[in-house]
From TrEMBL, chains A, B:
Pfam families: PadR, Vir_act_alpha_C. This is PadR family transcriptional regulator. InterPro entries: Tscrpt_reg_PadR_C (IPR018309), Tscrpt_reg_PadR_N (IPR005149), WH-like_DNA-bd_sf (IPR036388), WH_DNA-bd_sf (IPR036390). Residues 7-80 form the Transcription regulator PadR N-terminal domain. Residues 93-174 form the Transcription regulator PadR C-terminal domain. It comes from the Bacteria. Gene3D superfamilies: 6.10.140.190, Winged helix-like DNA-binding domain superfamily/Winged helix DNA-binding domain (1.10.10.10). It comes from Streptomyces resistomycificus.
DNA sequence: GGTTCTTGTGCAACTAGTTGCATAATCCGT
DNA sequence: ACGGATTATGCAACTAGTTGCACAAGAACC
């Protein structure tokens, strides 16, 4: 039940319209809490009804018109409450690990292509994170806020690093597969 | 849509009743695909209706009676098909990362206790994985099946290792928190 | 020999997330 | 000005997962 809170964070960082939020969920926020535009619009409606956000006054509040939202004090309070509240870690579900375990029983036939594809996807994501790190977190900026944001980004970097290494190992385990192409970026 | 396949894997590894499956989902399989007993019973019903599994003939098929299931050829075929099919990686959602990002905006007050609690939980899980590794994968066993299973377990170990390190770093970032107690197991 | 505890099975309702489509406004070439 | 592409907003139906409870059978209590 965290989508509303993800939206509150995004809106606190910058008031936005539904579409702008959607774009930002495709980038930064979405890296660890993804959402589609349909979910976002639905949630914006609820958050407005609850008095946590409000639409900035616009010319005509009609369909197909941009509507920008900002967070109200009640919304900021709710976010603070949620952040501090104790929450159990959600159980993971990872289909690729499951498929490897299935492969131990029914064989590895047909797995190689998808392992390779996932490896490429994770390498791409890792490169994107490293790009962001270079751009937004040059050494020397040590404000508390920047350090926290950097910490979150580093989680992304380290997780993607893990997956690229693990998938490369998995490919090496396949009986008749070529070893994965080395990642020869600098 | 992978719960039915997780169940097929478990049943191929060993035919079981609903409750036995539930227990195994609390341990091994559940480490990367969790499920409650309600989900499992529902899915067993569907899998039986589809002809993927069948109940081993029992004395009285009454309520409150153990019923053991085994996988039929159609079920094994379906699992093979699913394992080889291309699947997009699911977008991640991690509430703790989201909370840290929220903390960058609304402050870190109240976070410390839960960070510490999660750190303990991950350390516990890591210890459990390492125990399993020591018990089930002594050096020298290099059958293809064992290597694949070990690979999956190592993913769990490395992910938990990452989280314990990351959470310790996060605690170190909190303004007025003590550093996390060192993990002084051997 | 009734009571309560534990084990095993299951339904129903709810919540969160996904997929597919609908609609309005605006921009842009002709 | 007209007609199609793009931008922006949104509803509805579906799927997957969670929560809460119900009920039957046997064990164990005493």
């Amino acid at each position: 039940m965290s989508l509303p809170h993800a939206i509150l964070i995004a809106l606190l960082e910058r008031p936005s319209s539904g579409l702008e939020l959607t774009r930002r969920f495709d980038r930064s926020i979405g890296y660890f809490w993804s959402a589609t535009h349909q979910q976002i619009y639905r949630e914006l409606g609820k958050l407005e009804a609850e008095g946590h956000i409000r639409a900035l006054p616009a010319q005509q509040p009609a369909r197909g018109q941009k509507k920008r939202y900002e967070v109200l004090p009640a919304g900021r309070a709710e976010l603070g409450r949620w952040t501090a509240a104790s929450q159990d870690p959600k159980p993971h579900r990872d289909a690729m690990l499951l498929r490897l375990r299935a492969a131990a029983v029914v064989g590895t036939a047909g797995l190689e292509a998808d392992l390779r594809r996932h490896l490429d996807l994770h390498r791409l994501q890792l490169a994107e994170y490293q790009e962001i790190e270079k751009r937004d977190f040059p050494p020397g900026n040590d404000s508390a806020q920047a350090r926290l944001q950097h910490l979150v980004l580093r989680a992304g970097i380290e997780l993607e690093t893990f997956w690229t290494q693990w998938l490369a190992e998995a490919l090496a385990e396949l009986p008749d597969a070529q070893p994965p192409v080395a990642d020869d970026r600098p």
